Amino acid sequence: MAQHRTRAALPLERKFISRPTTLRVVEGCVALYRELGDGRRLIPDVLGPGRLFGSGLVDVQDCRAMTLAATSVETFDGPPQAAVIDVVMRQMLLRAQAHAILLGRKTAAERVATALLDLASQFARKSRSPSGKGKTTFNLHLTRADLADWLGLTLETVSRCLGAFKRGRLIAFDHPEIITIRDRTALEALAAGNARAFAA
Amino acid sequence: MAQHRTRAALPLERKFISRPTTLRVVEGCVALYRELGDGRRLIPDVLGPGRLFGSGLVDVQDCRAMTLAATSVETFDGPPQAAVIDVVMRQMLLRAQAHAILLGRKTAAERVATALLDLASQFARKSRSPSGKGKTTFNLHLTRADLADWLGLTLETVSRCLGAFKRGRLIAFDHPEIITIRDRTALEALAAGNARAFAA
DNA sequence: CGCATTTTTGATTCTTATCAAGACGAGTGG
DNA sequence: CCACTCGTCTTGATAAGAATCAAAAATGCG
Which of residues 125-144 of A touch B (CB under 8 A)? Predict the structure, then answer.
């Protein structure tokens, strides 16, 4: 599936990637983003380990990519195989459509719940202690502002939602970047649009 | 580019398409849509003549398609060529990302302005009279409710925006479905996010 | 010519954005 | 080790934008 590849080892902190190649996230987190003329910014997708991106794939047009943590990526020398492109594009499109629903028709709380579940699935640590059933802990690589630009909200609203979830025992966190999911069922109900609770 | 094709001639009015084939819009208008559990609905894309869609292409997952006017489509017998899929997917992804920005970061007026320009480019009538410079007239195949579901708004807000544009001489319409663009420049400025005017 | 659907318009409410301080944490230099 | 500072996060008060509720006007259809 992969052509000749080189480990690029970019332990960049919030550096920018603009080279025209295809890349795969090995560890860490990459966010695609676009800036409007004025201050507005939008992050259409957040990529965890295993996800592919690069020119001619995803950041079509004028999207840029930025690493949000100590991140390493592999580069592919030639253009990737057509079959690979197809699979990745399909996944991107699927995610884009799901995200469109989120942006167009979900409340703030529903958006944050959806985001938490997505990030948990991409960044979950395997260390689920014997006691923890369904409890997942993961590193939220995004700041509140990044989350806001991903979810079409403001950073204050994101913070309020996370606070409300914490008070409601859906999640837990001491450090604002290390999140534990305590009640996945409730989060999923929220994300799906059931459960009208937890206004920001 | 096209394989053996048959004119399917579906002069359906808001009928539903669910067959697993690849289709091309010949004339009329097709909207892809998804329904959430409760009443909420979202239209991720609206397709005019020339656009391709169908299974394994666009309405990936559980998107459905619906015709919004007397519409005819061609069907392709086999699966389309890989190159065709690639081009179409790329276009869809591009549009999806642009739409994500609209949904995530634009005001109601900006969204409606963007939609009008998009629809004008897809459905413009060639009959630009000698006097009309830049004036385009087109048939808005979508109802206000459809527009709302496309733009992540309510039908009332859409109606108010259109009314505001009409009063501001940006557009004109007597029949609510036949729209004429009178000031394309202003609309484009609005759509781009400049010009803070015309709150709903 | 009614009847049903869509559109417009108005009044009000709600959610979220905006504005404004603080609080917390990490890193720096004395 | 301790101020100091910068960036992020939290929290509160207020405001703006769009949703909701409600009811007319158009429009289209049988």
Answer: none
Contact A77, A4 (CB under 8 A): yes
Q: How many CB pairs under 8 A join A and B?
A: 95
CA distance A196 to A135: 23
For chain A, what are the domain ranges?
5-99, 107-192
Which CATH class, in words, describes the domain spanning A5-99? mainly beta
Q: Tell me which CATH code domain B107-192 carries.
A: 1.10.10.10
Q: List, for residues A6-60, the tens digit of each pLDDT value.
A: 233 333 334 455 455 788 899 899 999 988 878 889 999 999 999 988 766 555 5
Q: Using a 7 Å cut-off to protein CB atoms, list the covered nucleotides of chain C.
A: 6-11, 15-20, 25-26
| Å from the A162 CA to the C20 C1' | 21
Nearest to B34 by CA among A101, A196, A188: A101
- Least CA distance to B82: which residue of chain A? A82
